[in-house]
Amino acid sequence: MQPLGDVTERRPLREPSRFKSVESKPEHTSKLPSGSKVRIRISNQEQPEDTSTSQTDRDVSSSHTRTRRMGVKWLRIRSILNPRMLKPKHVSSYACTINEVVGDFIRRAAWLRETSGGGLMVNDLTAELYKFAFEGICSVLFETRMGCMNEVVPEETQKFIFSVGEMFRLSPILVLIPKFFWPYTPFWKQFVAAWDHLFKVAGELVQQKMDEIQDKVHLDQNVEGAYLTHLLLSEQMTVTEILGSITELLLAGVDTTSNTVAWTLYQLAKQPEIQEQLYQEVISVCPGDKVPDSEDIAQMPYLKAIIRETLRLYPVVPGNARVSVESEIVVGGHLFPKNTLFHLCHYAVSYDESIFPDAHSFLPDRWLRGGEEKPRLHPFGSVPFGFGIRACLGRRVAELEMYLLLSRLVQRFEVRPDPAGAPVTPITRTLLCPSTPINLQFVDRRTSPRQQ
Fold first, then answer.
1. Which of 182, 233, 232 is nearest to 6 (CA)?
2. Who has the most CB within 10 Å: 100, 186, 378, 390?
3. Which residues of 185-212 are buried (b: 16+ CB within 10 A; e: fewer)?
4. What 3-state DSSP class applies to 273?
5. Does the pLDDT at position 10 exceed 50?
6. What pLDDT shows up at residue 360?
7. How far out from the chain centre does Cα 339 lie?
8. Terminal C-alpha separation, the chain
9. What is the mean pLDDT of residues 147-170?
10. How many Å apart are CA 78 and CA 257, to the nearest integer?
């Protein structure tokens, strides 16, 4: 989004002096995933020389040059961010951090049930999962806790969460207004204010981590940390680039996790036989009080199939677009000229009966290896995280959060529908969200000292 760069530039952080005496072994290269046979992409190839005298052609050429430069900068930053977010060995290292937040969420769910749900109900589950996802991704990215799992959420954290919601609420409104009108509308002022606050808080967290590193350097102490520490020590990105990248990762990660887990629990509550099959898988891999980790998750194919089926029925991003900027392209036997805008409607494809038989039913088995339907599924029938170089950077962390949370929730609770509840349908507010609150009953399966 355009405001991103503007706000970042208005709030620069001081660049750190080199963290001398600190040994850092940054990963300078990252193997990027290859594209599909037919891929719509923005290329970084050189433009042919512009020999036309047309002002329109010169404007188009200038636009292409700007796009190419943006692409080069994006690819450089992405190659730095990729290893710690996409390589399994690095993502697995976040499991302990995420499991701490999962444990706090389970305790909060039990507390909410007792204090405001009549001993059974957890009301507005999506809002509570939003707090969990926010706490989880902040723990990974900023290496700090924000207090979302407290009985009373800190005011500053509430304001940050509100700013994220405002950004998503106002985005589709501004898209409908001509750009030159933006500065004269209240929506634009609210939008910029939301981004300003997001970068203010993120900037304070980054600066706090920089100060911690510098203090340890002065004391000749070893500097240890995860994602943010790695980015700061590697010195491959400026602090402004780190701030912009890490804030966007935060925004992308929260809604994916919270909405997907909310829809998953909603479906499991409606279909107890699927929930029971998942429970049996979880306790077979993690019997007793064993807390699932990343290695355990690898042995839970049904858990992964359930999440995948949820993302098919409720894609977080129901549609997006790509422009084939610099060359013509053939798609499905049709030739499209350069500068063609392709709109990709994931939601429509997900419900296409020719791609997914019985498309309106929640059928996790369709994703299992050896299942009857698996060989017939189109490999690009459901791509909730995108594909290729521009695929979602936070995919692996979001999936790990969802797997760890869902497996432990099923270990502890049987989830049942709200007896007085009506069906919940999705609605698009930039992202696909529940149109009404999801309220579910959380019934204890068993209680052990460790779970308490």
1. 182
2. 390
3. eebbebbbebbbbbbebbbebbeebbeb
4. helix
5. no
6. 96
7. 29
8. 44
9. 91
10. 22
Nearest to 286 by CA among 397, 410, 110, 396: 410
Give the tens place of pLDDT for each residue, 440-450. Answer: 999 999 754 44
Instruction: Give the start-end residues of each E strand in 97-189.
Output: 121-122
Stated as kind and residue range, the H or E segment containing 450 is none
Q: How far apart are CA 158 and CA 152, in angstroms?
A: 10
Q: Check residues 186 and 394 and name the one with the higher pLDDT.
A: 186
Q: Residue 429: in which H helix or E strand, if any?
A: strand 426-429
DSSP 8-state assignment for residue 259: H
Q: d(Cα 93, Cα 293) in Å, to the nearest integer?
A: 10
> At 66, which helix (H) or strand (E)?
helix 55-86
User: Cα separation of 263 and 125, whole Å?
Assistant: 10
Measured N-to-C along each axis, helices 239-270 and 395-412 cross at an angle, to the nearest 10 degrees, of 40
Q: What is the C-alpha separation between 169 and 162, in angstroms, rounded?
A: 10
CA gap 228, 242 in Å, rounded: 8
User: Distance between CA atoms of 405 and 437, rounded to whole angstroms?
Assistant: 20
> Which amino acid would we find at residue 63?
S
8 A C-beta contact, residue 131 and residue 449? no
Residue 128 neighbours by CB distance under 10 Å: 20
Instruction: State the average pLDDT over residues 232-258.
Output: 87
**138 and 201 in contact (C-beta within 8 Å)?**
no
The answer to whether the CB of 407 falls within 8 A of the CB of 95 is no
Closest CA to 416 of 196, 131, 125: 125
Contact 309, 402 (CB under 8 A): no
145: left (phi over 0), alpha (psi -120 to 50) or beta: beta
β-pairing, 413-417 with 121-122? unpaired
Contact by Cβ (8 Å): 254, 137: yes
CB 438 within 8 A of CB 266: yes
Q: What is the mean pLDDT of the chain?
A: 82
The residues, any chain, with a CB within 8 Å of residue 391's CB and separated by 6 or more, are: 33, 385
The pTM (predicted TM-score) of the whole model is 0.81
Single-letter amino acid code for the residue at 247: T
CA pseudo-torsion sign 294, 296, 299, 303: negative
In the numeric block, which tokens belong to residue 433? 């969200």
Position 147, amino acid: G
